[in-house]
Each structure stands twice: as C-alpha cells, then as structure tokens.
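Sample 3 of the quickstart, ligand glycyl-adenosine-5'-phosphate:
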Amino acid sequence: MAENVNDLMEKLVSLCKRRGFIFQSSEIYGGIGGFWDYGPLGVELKRNVKNAWWKDTVLKRDDIVGLDCSIIMNPKVWEASGHVVNFNDPLVDCRKCKARYRADKVFSVSARDGDNVLFAGGVEADDESGAQAAVLAGANSKTRRRLEQHGEALAWEMHRLDQLPGDVAAMCPNCGGELTEPRKFNMMFKTFVGAMEDSSAQAYLRPETAQGIFANYRNVLDTSRIKVPFGIAQIGKSFRNEINPRNYTFRSREFEQMEIEFFCAPAEADDWYKYWRDARYNWYVTHGLQSDKLCLRDHDPAELAHYAAGCADVEYAFPFGVAELEGIANRTDFDLKAHQTASGKDLTYFDDETKERYVPYVIEPSGGVDRATLAFLCEAYCEDEAPDEKGNMQQRVVMKFHPRLAPVKVAVFPLVKKEGMPEIATKIHQDARKAGLASFYDEKGAVGRRYRRQDEAGTPFCVTVDGQTLEDQTVTVRDRDSLAQERIAADKVVQYVKERIG
Ligand code: GAP
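Result:
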C-alpha cells in the first residue's frame, strides 16, 4: 500500500493548517465536507496564482478582455447550456446504511486466497492501492487481520460496477450492504430568488464561469473595440454539489475557476486550439511545476463531448494520483448557437475584411484556481537539511514556491532586539512594502527558528541586520533554496529582491 503517498499528503495538510495556508471550513462546528478556507498565507498564495494568470492572459495581451459576472443568472442560461438536463452524476445508494456513491466510482474488489474469496466490497477509489485501503477499512476485524497478514501475497481484482463477474457483487464500501441501481443526480446547487420558495423562483449557483461569458459575448463585442479572434477571461467562484468531495481541495463543492472563452473563425479553430493547448501547459511549467510531473493528455475521440472537436487535459502527478488541472477544448459553435436559439438574440459575427457572417467557434482553456494552488503546494513541499546557529545540520521543511507565487517575498530580522538593529530592520521592511513587495518583519526568538518559519512559509529571501550592519551598512541575504548567504548594502535590499523574483 502506498504509505509514502499518504504520508506526504498528511504532512502537507498538517503544514497547511499549522502555518495558515488552508483550514477546514467552519472547523469549530466540525467542518462541512467539500468546503475549505484559505488562511493568511494561503490567501496570498491563491491570490498570486490568480494575479499571475490575470496578468499573463489579460493584461499582457491585446486580444483578451476581462469580465466579472454574477454567480446567480437567469435559469434559462442553464437550460440553454444543457446543464439542467445533462449536468448529472450517476448515483447509487446503499439500501442498508443509506450511504451514497457515484456509480462510476464504485468498484468491487475481491481479495482471493487461492479459490477462497476473502472479501468482496464496492469501494470508491481511483486506483488499486486506494481500493485495497478501503477494503481493509470496510472489512470486519477478522478479515482485516487476515488481509493485513497476507495482503501482499493475495491476488486483488478490481471491477467496475457495470463489469462485475458473476461471483462478485457490488457492495457498499461502508457496510457491505446491497447497492441500488444507478440513477441521475443533478450537481447544481439550487436556491430561490425573492420571497417565494416555489419552482417559479428557483435559480442555480453557477457550476462554471463559462456560461456568464457566453451570455455577455454580445455586450463585450458591442462595447469594446475588439474583433475576432478575441477572448473573454473570467476568474470566479463555481459551485458543484459533488457526491464525493475528496483529496483535500482537489474536488470541492465551492471552488474558483479561471476560464477563457476564445472566439475565432471556424477555419482557424484548429490552430487556436493547438496554440492554447501548448500555452496553458507551458504556463504551469513556467510557474514551477516540473515537466516530469505534468502531462498534456489528448482525449480519445470516444471521450469527446458530441459538440467538441478536440480536448486535452493538463494533468499533474499529485501524491494521490495523476489528475486534471485544466481542460482545453475546441467547443465549436455549440454554446453560442445554443444561446442564440434559446434567447432569440443574434450572436453572429460579421467579418469586415472577408465580408462573411458566422457564429464564431470557441476554444476554452478552463482551469481550477484551487487545483492549481494545490499542485503548487505539492510541488513546493521539500524536506532537506540546513545548519542551525552552531553549524549542526538539522532537518527542515521548506516550501520552494516559484518566487512569483510565494506569499511573502522577503522577511527582515534584526539579529538582536537592541543596538539600533530593530530600527534599521524596520526601515528595510517598510521600504520593501512601499515598493510593493510582500515583506514580513520578525524579531522574536533565535534567528535559526525565524529562518525555519520562513522556510515553511516559502519566503525566498531572509535579510538579517547584525553587528556588521552598524559598521558598514551591509546586511546578509539568505537564499531559501541554496541557503547561500551574501552581504549586500542595506539600501540595495529592495532592488536585489525585485531583480531576483522577476
Ligand atoms: N467550462 C468548462 C468546465 O467547467 P470542467 O472540466 O468541468 O470544465 C474546469 O472544469 C476546471 O475546473 C477543472 O479542470 C478543474 O481544475 C476545476 N474544477 C472542476 N470541478 C472542480 C471541483 N469540484 N473542485 C475543484 N476544482 C474543480
């Protein structure tokens, strides 16, 4: 069983709580499944992810404009988009304990000791080791002992719910009870607008930001001096009533998306699709995800939605498995045509140069802010050794964030709280802030402990004011990753850090 994987996730989750990156939502009341809060360091990290995306996709380009539209929209939007009818998960219920699972995630696992089937149960798992773990958790104590003793030697077989061999029944992972037939469950959260709580007042929390872009396509075209090909970008909250929120923030019920709908001429759609597919993959590499943990997976034609002419996922090797960070799709003219038909509004585009009128094709790079943030957290987590004040090597945990994403860019310490050192350090800290750098001032405890705290926060540079500063106005700057220390002029700290974080 993959203990090291669980270990790594456990360590990361514990660091995120201990250092204020991520907390369970409403934790003081026992939490609520699928909802997460970002603490003081986490909110800066996540904001840096969003700012980097916004700057690179909107502010640095002439062909993309931004949008921020409402979360609750006219319910007709979701009828036209197909979400009311098609945004479903197949569900099964346990007849005995009433637990509910996504049917496509239920596996049956049998552990065989020769001809003897030790345990067969339906389990929700992404891979074999997860399935085995769930079988162990669900087995009675006698069976569990046998499985633990002989687990490695046993033959494990996994089957999807719809492909069960005759001698293995789909059973509840929780209690072993019988499961119902799969049925459809719509994942949109419902609410009511106004005083009435009946079907005429029913509305939905958006399950994606994309439809707000399609609904505003005409407005943007008419009000900005933009021409096809162009894109509309939006970052915002989306909500999905996921049946099995899991893997920390990876699958949540409330999350943020960063989406672009890029409108182009049908004949150019293939080229733009390839362009965005590569550009989005490279964006993650540029921000520190190592290419051997990233992959750009083209969907098989059989996987494509009926309207899509191409789709690729940027996937990342999380500690719990390889999973999607972002999808890039060529959605053809499906969405604009659907809204044109349902709203009766003209959503065609007239090309002045070719004198052609057409409904543009759409290339959609659609990423998750929380998933990207989780990938950056996983990638950053490192354990190595650093010397303490006496020069003895000590284990340290360090978050090696890309400098652009690091929540704090520079920390400033006076070596001791006297001899004017705090005053000099405070001035450097304030200058850094004035220059727009996220800076942290710390004068408490041994300097080695202050370094450790900043290593766990992922701060790229620590600046120390010491006795020598009083003589020659220089300070030491310590590099988080190489641990190299150099002396530079105190009044050059801001310039030094700015040059290095880019
Ligand atoms: N407009 C297309 C769309 O929404 P999607 O594949 O359903 O496509 C896009 O979602 C991205 O949103 C995913 O690649 C993922 O990063 C993020 N996402 C989707 N569901 C999520 C969830 N339950 N929790 C966190 N992120 C999610």
